[in-house]
Write a structure and sequence with these properties.
mainly beta; 7 strands; two-stranded antiparallel sheet; 1 helix; 9% helix; disordered C terminus
Length: 85
């Protein structure tokens, strides 16, 4: 089952294409580019709790129980049944 999320600029993105998510207070910065996104946020999507509460909740729930990547030692988060970021 594929999850779709609405971004703050009214675009709809598929969770299966998410490369990484950065949590910033009540907003989530999302990269869906296959070759990654830059640090400046020019090519990322934002999902804020105040603008898109259902999309924010759906993605933010994945931050509640992270696993640990055995190679990097950093947390990773489950997006759906087969994808980890």
């Amino acid at each position: 089952m594929d999850s779709y999320l609405k971004t703050d600029n009214n675009k709809v993105i598929s969770a299966k294409y998410i490369r990484w998510v950065k949590k910033m207070n009540d907003c989530l910065e999302v990269c869906i580019k296959s070759n990654g996104c830059g640090d400046k946020g020019d090519d990322t999507h934002t999902i804020c709790k105040s603008n898109n509460p259902s999309s924010y909740k759906k993605l933010n729930e994945k931050f509640e129980d992270p696993g640990i990547n055995p190679l990097s030692g950093r947390p990773y988060y489950k997006i759906d049944d087969s994808k980890y970021i």
